[in-house]
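Reading a protein record of the kind used here takes little practice once its layout is understood. An example of such a record is reproduced below.
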Amino acid sequence: MSRIVLARHGETVWHAENRYAGRTDIALTPRGLSQARHLAGWAASASLAAVWASSLTRARLTAQPAAEAAGVPLQIDSRLLELDFGQGEGLTDQEQRERFPDARAAFVQDPAANFLPGGEDPVHAARRGTEALHHIASRPQRGKASPLPTLPDATPQPQPSTP
């Protein structure tokens, strides 16, 4: 049985402004590069069998140090690309409300049924991502992954309470 550990790319220059990046190839910030180094520190002892990323620069720059630390080649699969937000790419919520208010309202109400103008159907994106994960899981494995670390300055994730 395969165990897949997912890590999101490091912080990009659009995070501070809360802009939709999707398929736009946005650079990592110095903090994002630091997060990639932190991930690599974890990967060095995680017994990873493989490291995969999408073809976007931010994903590759986050994953490459982890692959090097794990001693495995970085493998690219375009099916791991983020959702294409179409005309919403590069815009903030407010800018979307100003440019296409009805489409933005419908998107907020049900993003799976009402994707942004010119954007990718989220059902298709989920299908393509699932296909990529099935492909990755079917590959021969050599290691056992350890839990992911908390990245520096990352938003804390809720922890399950223990009785």
About this structure: The domain at 30-138 is CATH 3.40.50.1240 (Rossmann fold).
